[in-house]
Amino acid sequence: MAHFGALRELQPWFDPLLLIPGTEITTFHGHANIFGESRFVDFRVGTSAVPNLAALERKVAEAGAILSINHPNSPSGEICMGCGWTWRDTGYAGVTAVEAVNGNLAEGPYAGVGFWYARLNEGLRLTGIAGSDSHDPDAPNGKPPVGRPTTVVHAAALSIPAILDGIRAGNVFIDVQGTRDRMLEVEVSDGTNQAVMGGTLRPADRQIRVEVKTAGLNDALVRLIANGKPVDGAEASVSAANPRATLSLDRRAACGWISANVVDRAGHPLLMGNPIYIVCR
């Protein structure tokens, strides 16, 4: 927490930049970030003060902060001790977010997307975020600089409570390349009711309409994801001249959750959306 004082001293000099205090918790069974804590959070999991992960989650909440799992699919063991998330007794009620993209890892077996999608398929509601994990502002040897990738949060204000509330709400997307000018907005509708990313739709109609609005893209594809898998035939082109796309999906295929991602023509992710939960009971 030694840097917290410096953040408070520097903040008045940077009106358009919000500095949010945070710490990283590193254990032999995984890494996690605490965002927005108001005071010291005892991180010593396995001690009498913090006997288990659930106790850490409670302490994070008591400090007004949120907990996010870092690079959960990274290799662990002797390859990278504690880098992957291997806590068997994880109580996700106290976890707000998962790092779906870490640095350059936006796809492949070490990316966090698969871990995140698997938790969503278990019925958990976790917000997917990203982090550069940059340990050097000069970003040597082709490593991603600070801010790439970027987590973009729909928030009511430029304040710590508003940003944390925005992450909790899930109206968030990941800009894989950290471009600063790309945008992704997703809304689903059954003709009567609507929901945006992080929201819930209980469709009354058989067909669900998905409206996607983008910005800052050129010759890209919007792909609809249902319960972690691309929906066959549910994709549309977007560009600066044509930034919107409309897709439709049968309610039975959408039950659970859906999201929209934007990829380039080679299929590599550019923007990744958070889920909209579809309740079909």
Write the layout of secondary structure elements.
Layout (H helix, E strand, L loop, with lengths): L3 H7 L11 E6 L2 E6 L17 H10 L3 E4 L27 E6 L10 H9 L5 E5 L18 E4 L6 H10 L2 E4 L7 E7 L4 E3 L3 E2 L5 E9 L4 E7 L2 E10 L5 E7 H4 L1 E8 L5 E5 L2 E3 L3
Parallel strand pairs: 3-4, 4-5, 10-17
Antiparallel strand pairs: 1-2, 2-3, 6-7, 7-16, 8-9, 8-11, 11-14, 12-13, 12-15, 15-16, 15-17
Radius of gyration: 19 Å
Q: Helix tally?
A: 5
Quaternary state of this entry equals: single chain
Summarize the helix and strand pattern as letters.
Answer: HEEHEEHEEHEEEEEEEEHEEE
Which bin fits the share of residues in helices?
A: 10-25%
- Give me the secondary-structure category: alpha+beta
Low-confidence region ranges: none
**How far apart are the termini?**
46 Å
Chain-averaged pLDDT: 94
Largest sheet: 8 strands, mixed
Overall form: globular
Residue fraction in strands: 25-35%
Strands, total number: 17
Structure description:
This protein has 281 residues and is of the alpha+beta class. The chain contains 5 helices and 17 strands. The protein has helices at residues 4-10, 53-62, 113-121, 160-169, 251-254; strands at residues 22-27, 30-35, 66-69, 97-102, 127-131, 150-153, 172-175, 183-189, 194-196, 200-201, 207-215, 220-226, 229-238, 244-250, 256-263, 269-273, 276-278. Strands 6, 7, 10, 12, 13, 15, 16 and 17 form an 8-stranded mixed beta sheet that branches. A hairpin with a 5-residue loop joins strand 15 and strand 16. The longest helix is centred in the first third of the chain and has 10 residues, at 53-62. The termini are far apart.
